[in-house]
Amino acid sequence: MDKRYKPMTAIEQMNKRLQVLENINNNPEWQIYQIASYIRKELHLTLNEMSKITKIAPQTLQKMEQPDSNPTLDSINKLLNAFGLKFIIKSK
Prior knowledge:
By secondary structure, this protein is mainly alpha-helical.
């Protein structure tokens, strides 16, 4: 947990995670850099903490949060799967 924030109880953490997942599901137009940044910031995670959760190097996560990022499908799947999300390609 990022030290700049007051620690959350286990129930608060669970409710916050559910809220984050709901917001992501309600915004299918978000790009991967927006999702990566949103998850980390809303859950008050440092890059190192998110790295441990996702098994993605902190430098890669930092790059994924940039609008001009070009992450691999493997990195995208690791990020999303760690939080119970799936990457789906849909045609219009």
